[in-house]
Design brief:
Layout lengths: L2 E5 L4 H12 L3 E6 L11 E5 L6 H8 L4 E4 L8 H19 L3 E5 L5 H4 L4 H17 L3 E6 L2 E3 L6 E4 L6 E3 H11 L8 E7 L2 E2 H6 L2
Helix pairs in contact: 1-6, 2-3, 3-5
């Protein structure tokens, strides 16, 4: 069992991720600007957090956890303060708090070829991802699916391939949750696509 902290805890992916992590026996603190929108489950604590706050304030909230997930996103409304610098502040806070394991939900950089409107969002994500890889000592994993769709998951994926146009949210969430169990994913950027390989088998092969 691990103590998990999730940034962006009221989002679509986070809602499924929380359920998957709890099902695996973990306890979760999920943080969001509107904690009343976080799913209510045994083993889950809702916390209020705005990514505009200082690193020291974020540090106080993440201290004592075993792993951090970053699934927050502004949907294009606050790219600098949420998707770019907001993410980086959580990394700084994690290092200050001694929380080594950090799992980032990002986006396949090649998505701009299919969806030009994502260019600004991808730039923000690329900036945050690059900082995580090059400027921290965190034990990171960056998962990069394509665009997210609200469809039933299949439980089957492909990894380290260019993302397809869409990925069911339940499959992305289950992959994020499962990453925590596989140390071989540390230090890896993992493009993700829908596929034919069960999630655990795909992660074992990395």
């Amino acid at each position: 069992m691990a103590k998990i902290f999730i940034f962006g805890g009221s989002g679509r992916v986070a809602t499924d991720l929380i359920q998957d992590l709890v099902a695996d026996g973990n306890t979760v603190t999920a943080a969001a600007r509107h904690p009343e929108n976080i799913i209510q489950l045994d083993g889950v604590t809702a916390d209020k957090l705005d990514l505009h706050i200082d690193v020291d304030d974020i540090f106080k909230q993440v201290k004592g956890f075993d792993a951090i997930y970053f699934t927050a996103g502004s949907r294009g409304k606050d790219l600098i303060q949420t998707d770019a610098m907001g993410a980086i502040k959580t990394m700084m806070a994690a290092e200050k708090a001694g929380v080594k394991r950090y799992i980032m939900l990002s986006l396949d950089i090649n998505s701009w070829k299919k969806i030009p409107s994502l260019e600004d969002y991808l730039a923000a994500k690329f900036f945050a991802d690059t900082y995580l890889m090059d400027s921290t000592n965190l034990e990171y994993t960056i998962l990069q699916p394509g665009s997210l769709i609200e469809e039933a998951g299949t439980g089957k994926i492909q990894l380290n391939v260019e993302a397809t146009d869409s990925n069911p949210i339940p499959d992305v969430a289950k992959t994020l949750a499962a990453i925590l169990k596989y140390p071989n994913t540390i230090g890896k950027v993992i493009p993700m696509s829908s596929g034919k390989t069960p999630i655990d088998d795909a992660l074992k092969e990395i």
